[in-house]
Design a protein that fits this description.
flat
């Protein structure tokens, strides 16, 4: 793991490419020839243009996770196991792990691209009839046409 602190555009490009493909800064920084985590975060603060490149890579990462969710959901290879007596049974642990993987990716996608993948908040306002009638009466007294 390199401890170099001077900005290197080639390294920045590789970092962003790997982030877009679902890797974490922590994992990337452990590889030989890559800057340490704190250096990458320093670059984000100090190097013009790198934070925009990084932000775009994170947005791309959300799209990568979308594809992963589909692959995880479609993969049934571990959904059943054969016990010692030759009986096939449901592998609940594998199914729960897949559910966790999908839920985690959905949560991250909602944080990376909240407008596209975030939770939608919808409010419904209901005015009861007595309030509506009182409002109509107040408008009449005030001389406001409805």
């Amino acid at each position: 793991m390199s401890q170099a602190t001077s900005f290197n555009q080639d390294a920045a490009d590789k970092i962003c490419e790997r982030i877009a493909l679902g890797e974490s800064v922590r994992k990337i920084s452990k590889d030989k020839g890559m800057p340490c985590e704190s250096t990458i975060y320093k670059w984000l603060r100090d190097v013009d243009g790198f934070s925009q490149q990084y932000a775009r890579a994170r947005e791309d990462q959300a799209e990568f996770y979308l594809d992963e969710i589909i692959a995880i959901s479609d993969d049934v290879t571990l959904d059943t196991v054969v016990d010692g007596e030759g009986n096939e049974r449901t592998n609940n642990e594998a199914i729960q792990r897949s559910r966790l993987k999908v839920d985690t990716r959905k949560w991250v996608m909602g944080k990376l691209k909240p407008k596209k993948y975030g939770d939608k908040i919808q409010q419904e306002i209901t005015i009861n009839e007595s309030l509506s009638n009182a409002l109509d009466e107040a408008r009449k007294r005030a001389g406001i046409d409805t």
